[in-house]
Amino acid sequence: MASYIREFNEIEKPKDYYEGLIEGIEKLNGTYDAFNVINKSARTGFLFSTKANICVKGFETDAGSKMLKGYVPPFNATVADRMLAKKDFSFIGVTNMDEFGFGTFGINTEIPAKNAFDSEYVAGGSSSGSAVATAMIKYHVSVAESTGGSIAAPAALNGVVGFTPTYGSVSRYGLIDYANSLDKIGVMARSSEDARIVFDRIRGRDDYDTTCSVEKISSEKKSRIFVMDSMLSKADQKVRGAFERLLDRLSRDYSVEHVDSATMEKAIAPYYIIAMAEASTNLAKYTGYKYGAMSQDFYKQYNEFFTDAREGFGIEAKRRILLGTFIRSESVKDKYYAKALAIRSMIMHEMDRLLKDGYILSPTLPITAPKIADARKLSPVENYAMDLFTIPPNLGGFPHISFPYDYIDGMPLGAQLVTGHGNDYAILDFVKEWESSFNYTYKHNLGEL
Amino acid sequence: MKIGLEVHVALPTKTKLFCSCSMEAAEPNSCICPICMGFPGSKPMLNKAAVESALGIANALHCSIKKEMSFVRKVYFYPDLPKSYQITQMEGSIGSGGYLEIGDKRVRIRRVQIEEDPAQLIRDGALTLIDFNRSGTPLVEIVTEPDISSEEEMRSFIGSLRSILYYLGVDINKEIKADVNISVAETRVEVKNVTGIKSMIESLRFEIERQTEAIRNGEEIAKETRGYNEKARSTQTLREKESDEEYGYIFESDLTVFGTEGLKFNLPVYANEVAKELAKGTDVSSRTVSEIIMLDRDSLAQINRLRGRHGLRSIIHGIERYKKYGSMERMPDRVLDSIVLLIDNGKEVPKEAITDLESGKDAKVEYSELSEEQLDKLINEYVAGNPELINEYMKQPKTVNFIIENIARPNGLHPKVVARRLMPILNRIAESR
Amino acid sequence: MEDKEFDRLLKITRLRVSDGERSMIKKDVEQVIAYFDEVSAVDAGKEQERYPAAIPGRFREDVISSFADVDGLKRNSKMRNGYIVGPKL
Which residues are CB-neighbours of B251 under 8 A, at least 6 positions away? Predict the structure, then answer.
């Protein structure tokens, strides 16, 4: 399938199409918890949803956190404004996510989203609901967000396309911050062409986001594909086997080259150092008197009042605030934060060099989807290790796309393709080409015509 | 003794530092938006005019200007700080390594940095009320090295700084806020958030006395942060030791890095130096000139305008005279022209003359050109030509006003000036009869 | 991590943890810091990258524009005489 958006616009819809579809979504959502909010008044155009950290005026946007329970933003994120500028897209709802984006599996929130293929399994995170919704509804796209792999990971685990553009090409205005130098708004879709249509709709300079200034997007096709062997060896056997088969197929059209990178493997620790340092400042603003969960006793001294309000943070958020604040301490700042910035620079240089000559390809995740109960047992460090492949491109703001390429035991697998800054169209084109000979499998096809 | 200052100055922009909200709010919480309220998802957008204004200040203080400047987040919790961090500058400060001259001494300027003002807090009983209109006001913080060594030097520093800022269009009359760091001996004591020049000097005086006394008694001075109480005119240890808090500065990545080349800014006027130049070769001291022009660009402009035509002493006398009654900013040039002419002619400049000049009665300007002899001549001629009026006056002294009017009006003279010369003449006639 | 340091972090972040959470979070934090210590072994050179692309700062012109929904900003807060009520100082 080339473009569901185009197909949808061409096909005749029954009169009660939206009513029936919304009913179906509500029913399925009871099992999968993809949506935090469903907009029952959607009646025109192609449906889109937004991750719960993207502000849509009039709809509860809680970033997956109790701290923002009940918060209804009085303004639209720039991407929401752009999606709603014409009547061709209709807002269907706010999707579930890990609290403030803190998670690889979607389980760091009160009620996690479930995998669209099997509700016992994790949906992936942090844009868990966006991926599940995309895998549930046929004519639908989701505007999601990635800091360190939050689009690619759930897209891979739910068998959809997850596209994360070049840092600075899509405005972050109205995106509830996790880590400002890493956050990127992107798209989840059932086809690469749909991802491109939405990308073109939301991208481009925005005066409300100083860092959003990348205008020119190219489509420079590469003939070489680089595979990092030492990193690949850390993936589990099943994943490795499937991925080798993918490489075999691709080697007919591309020159697949195995290279070693000493630095990309070292991306996880510096990524988390930077992300937590920035996150701990972004989360300082939740103090219980301006928005979200409110403290009630205004006669309490402010320190106590704030501490009361901030009890609403989940465990992972508390951990990251503490760690991020520790990292910013004067006595260790150079040891961790400054060093992390230096490693980031080193990794970016190396990736830049490689990406001039070809794409970098890897599995999106080193494992297949774990069961929710099993994922809960992982320690933070074990959890962070799952981001081995998604972190390098995120750390350097390189555009990357996760696309489904195989199914093991009925569960989808995703591969991640990375290219250089601003060459976003090239990887979208690559996946489009791939899709012409790949058969997607879905468990649900809500809204099928 | 070592004194260092951190002076905060509000910049004269139309909008706030990071958002387009107006700075002229009437009702509380009326000029606010998601950015200055620190709403989740909002991002700062840097005001060019604020940077240009700060650039002018950094340049005037002889700082080296960063080609690329950047911002940091300073994290602390307080109800007036909407994001729980303040966007300010550190290593990426717009200016650093400058100085300000006071007399023969240079006070080194460590840094000139741009930052946002928090919201305004008002106590209402036990409650705290917050007005976010002030939140996001652009400020410049000027950080000195501890080079000031007396109250006199601090006064002089503030005076010069105020003058420099004034000429750059930044008025700190009401708005000045400062942290004053004082070490009489080795230990540094910081007095935070002192508002106004008067309080700055009083807090300094108090601290010098307090620390000197402590040293005399052999007590140890605590390295601490104190607050200044305006009513009690004293400083006290702040309840919450802010020194326990770490600000955990981190690069503000929502703003990246800004090039400063190509930005326009105003060039400085150093009033003390200008005064020296003006006074050179005249009988006026540079200090007198300086006092006039320090905070008055209109007077400086008038001095420069009239300098070729009149002596400096007359000009300054004229300005001083005029300033008693009116504002230099709104004064038409011709008013001062007339005043200085009068002074040059050795005349008095009564208040009425200024009032008349101001109200635009142009004709009366002419009288200023008449000397006393000329005026007497005019009056004598009138008296000689109107004997019946003089006779009537002798019977009914009230009619004098009519005579005055008749002399004053056609000649464009002020009645009081006429009266002053007329009365002795009439008295003499009366005596002779 | 010393208990004193952990308490300092809790204090400056205005966070409170229950007794049950405390030992778990502290252990996690220690583990993660140990993991972060790995960066010391990396020889990364002096250059630092603070954001992931060359993005030149862009200024905003000093032109007033008012936010459309000022009341919406106050909807979440407790109000008194036009002021937003905050905690005691």
Answer: A181, B70, B71, B72, B73, C50
Instruction: Give 10-residue mean pLDDT values along chain C (89 residues).
Output: 94 94 95 96 90 88 96 93 94
Do A329 and B45 make contact, defined as CB atoms within 8 angstroms? no
Rounded to an integer, what distance in angstroms lies between the CA atom of residue C71 and that of residue C64?
Answer: 18
* Residues of C in Cβ contact (< 8 Å) with B46: 57-60
How many C-beta atoms lie closer than 10 Å to residue B26's C-beta?
A: 8
Strands (E), B184-223: 189-195
Confidence band, pLDDT 50/70/90 cuts, at residue B410: low
Q: What is the pLDDT of residues B258-294, one digit of tens each?
A: 999 999 999 999 999 999 999 999 988 999 999 999 9
Domain residues for C27? Answer: 1-42
Nearest C-alpha neighbor of A402 from the set A419, A385, A420, A414: A414
In sequence order, the β-bridge partners of residue B2 are B183
The span from the CA of B171 to the CA of A339, in Å, is 43
Domain extents in chain B: 2-259, 271-369, 372-432
pLDDT score at B416: 76
List CB contacts (< 8 A) between B41 and chain A: 53-55, 73, 77, 172-177
Quick check: B41 pLDDT over 80? yes
> What CATH class is the domain A4-219+399-435?
alpha beta
Among the partner-chain residues B126, B246, B254, the one whose CB lies closest to the CB of A211 is B254
Minimal Cα distance from C66: which residue of B? Answer: B21
The pLDDT tens digits for A227-272 are 999 999 999 999 999 999 999 999 999 999 999 888 999 999 999 9
Enumerate neighbours of C (3 or more CB pairs within 8 A): A, B
Chain A nearest-CA distance from C65, in A, is 13
Q: What are phi and psi of B192, to 5 degrees?
A: -95, 150
From B118-132, B187-201, B356-370, B411-425, the region with the lowest mean pLDDT: B356-370
Q: Do C9 and A269 touch (CB under 8 A)?
A: no
Instruction: Find, in chain A, the residue whose alpha carbon is nearest to that of B258.
Output: A210
Is residue C56 in a domain?
A: no
Q: Searching chain B, which residue's CA lies closest to the CA of residue C89?
A: B128
- Structure tokens, A95: 């999707």
Among C25, C49, C68, the residue with its CB nearest the CB of A318 is C25
Of A345, A382, A391, A395, which to mutate for an interface test with C (greatest number of C Cβ within 10 Å)?
Answer: A345
Contact residues, chain B, for C67 at CB < 8 Å:
21, 32-34
Give the best residue of A177, A285, A345 to mutate against chain B (max B CB count within 10 A). A285
d(CA A243, CA A364): 10
Tokens read off for B18 = 């990071």
Contacts of B96 by beta carbon, 8 Å cutoff, 6+ apart: B63, B64, B66, B109, B110, B111, B112
